[in-house]
């Protein structure tokens, strides 16, 4: 480092130390001592930032502890603003984690301190405060306590029971005949003598629904 650089650094240190308030009390603890000598200086006090976090993450939620049960349990701490449990879109079952939002940040902090690592139905509940800047903007989109999953069994039942056209019935019969022919070949290859009965749908056409009048 050259001479000019050293002089510039000393000048900057003196300028920075002169901007800090000088401690008037001798018995007061000093936070800053200038490198170039002189009276000690105290750093300005910083006020602690207010905690405004109201959203909690909850993990390891046990089976049977759902929205209504959670609302009834956590409402004893304070007023709940929103609550949701992550569920599967296909089955509607719980993914065992969720989020809860209180109106008061003090209540949220108390819940996080009291309920973290609490044993609930043989599960250690995990509760953590989510800072406001880390809350996803789409966290509460589409949340609904009365979530009704898609009934895939009923949808498949309706698809199988719907009235088929002649073309659909023809394709349906051809598919069954091919499968039946493969079964006959496997029986013959095994050396079993068995005469498979004819498929009824290959002879009769598709049945038609007839509406009878009430006369």
Could you please describe the fold and organization of this structure?
The protein is α+β, with helices and mostly antiparallel strands. It is 33% helix and 15% strand. Strands 2-3-1-5-4 form a five-stranded antiparallel β-sheet. Strand 4 and strand 5 form a beta hairpin.
Short description:
The chain is of the alpha+beta class and 215 residues long. The chain has helices spanning 3-19, 67-74, 105-115, 152-161, 166-189, and strands spanning 55-59, 80-87, 94-102, 118-120, 123-130.
Number of strands: 5
User: How much is the radius of gyration in Å?
Assistant: 38 Å
What about the largest sheet?
5 strands, antiparallel
| Share of residues in strands | 15-25%
| Oligomeric state of the chains in view | single chain
Question: What keywords describe this structure?
Answer:
215 residues, five-stranded antiparallel sheet, 5 helices
Outline the fold blueprint.
Elements: H1 3-19, E1 55-59, H2 67-74, E2 80-87, E3 94-102, H3 105-115, E4 118-120, E5 123-130, H4 152-161, H5 166-189
Antiparallel strand pairs: 1-3, 1-5, 2-3, 4-5
């Amino acid at each position: 480092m050259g001479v000019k650089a050293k002089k510039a650094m000393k000048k900057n240190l003196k300028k920075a130390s002169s901007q800090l308030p000088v401690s008037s009390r001798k018995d007061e603890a000093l936070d800053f001592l200038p490198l170039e000598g002189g009276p000690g200086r105290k750093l300005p006090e910083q006020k602690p930032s207010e905690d405004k976090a109201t959203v909690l993450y909850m993990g390891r939620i046990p089976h049977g502890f759902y929205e209504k049960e959670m609302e009834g349990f956590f409402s004893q701490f304070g007023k709940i603003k929103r609550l949701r449990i992550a569920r599967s879109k296909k089955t509607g079952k719980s993914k065992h984690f969720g989020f809860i939002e209180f109106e008061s940040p003090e209540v949220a902090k108390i819940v996080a301190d009291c309920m973290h690592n609490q044993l609930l139905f043989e599960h250690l509940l995990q509760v953590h405060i989510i800072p406001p800047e880390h809350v996803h903007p789409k966290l509460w989109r589409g949340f609904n306590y009365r979530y009704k999953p898609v009934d895939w069994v009923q949808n498949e039942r309706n698809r199988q029971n719907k009235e088929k056209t002649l073309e659909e019935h023809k394709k349906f019969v051809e598919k069954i005949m091919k499968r039946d022919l493969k079964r006959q070949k496997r029986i013959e290859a095994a050396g079993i003598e068995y005469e498979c009965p004819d498929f009824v749908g290959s002879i009769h056409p598709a049945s038609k629904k007839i509406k009878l009048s009430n006369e």
